């Protein structure tokens, strides 16, 4: 359930928002001649009106982030901000990341690329996470050569970043270049171990890495993680989930997710995953009950949950026709 923030927290947040908005407006006034300095709307209003609208929209956006608004709602505000002033790279980055959440990978690529074109320092290590996100988008649309080009840029900024090496591993594995994938995977394991991760944590990291690419490979690592750390409910739930989405092992997955829910009855993710398992098994009423329950428990919007609810509702509707 949502927790109400303390009074002190809310006061700090208000001051933070005000200071950040003034900082953004200062940047706007200082750098209004750059790349895409104004959008169509900004050309039809006065500078004072534009600054006022930008200040208000930034407040709406920042409060929306704090209040866990949906990506759709945040994207709408970001697009208004960028229509008024397309020169803010931070808003382009935010727009790209929000589009990733709803699987709009082409739109995400466009936004992230525009942010990178505006970023003032090309070799800033803080860009590594943006490059990782961009490479993920290219992977999802099967543009693997472009994916590798982006990863090369990221590795030049931080050659031992686990996220970069992990993406290299997945890129090679997806193209069935298994020796190359093994090379990157071995390197990744060494780096994770050097950072203090134990065997269970390393296996869990690898399972999450493969989860959206190769269910069998993910299952192998999640089984190891659970064997090393059988008291860990998160690792139990992860193994259960990969078995549920690999429908050939649905019964084992449902048995494990039931154990996870018994250990943590209010866990929205586990309830969601069990609901999807009910759907796979054709038990639509129980599936919908679980998924609606998960929606109430989630701390923030889940695109995957909404998709699963639509699947179940469509299945029920088809039975009633």
Quick description:
By secondary structure, this protein is an all-alpha fold.
Throw out a few tags for this protein.
Serine Threonine Protein Phosphatase 5, Tetratricopeptide repeat, 321 residues, mainly alpha, 75% helix, disordered N terminus, 16 helices
Describe the fold and architecture.
Among the domains are: 8-119, Alpha Horseshoe (Serine Threonine Protein Phosphatase 5, Tetratricopeptide repeat); 142-196, no CATH class; 266-321, no CATH class. The radius of gyration is 22 Å and the shape is globular. The chain has helices at residues 7-30, 47-66, 71-84, 89-101, 105-118, 128-140, 144-157, 162-174, 178-194, 199-210, 215-228, 233-245, 250-263, 268-280, 284-297, 303-320. With 321 residues, the protein is an all-alpha fold.
Please identify the top-level CATH class of the domain at 8-119.
Mainly Alpha
The CATH topology of the domain at 8-119 is given as Serine Threonine Protein Phosphatase 5, Tetratricopeptide repeat
Total number of beta strands: 0
Mean pLDDT across all amino acids: 89
The backbone outline, from C-alpha atoms, is globular
- Helical coverage, percent range: over 70%
As a percent range, the share of strand residues is under 5%
Q: Which stretches are poorly predicted, pLDDT < 50 over at least 5 residues? A: 1-37
Structural class: mainly alpha
SSE string, helix = H, strand = E?
A: HHHHHHHHHHHHHHHH
**What Rg, in angstroms, do the CA atoms define?**
22 Å
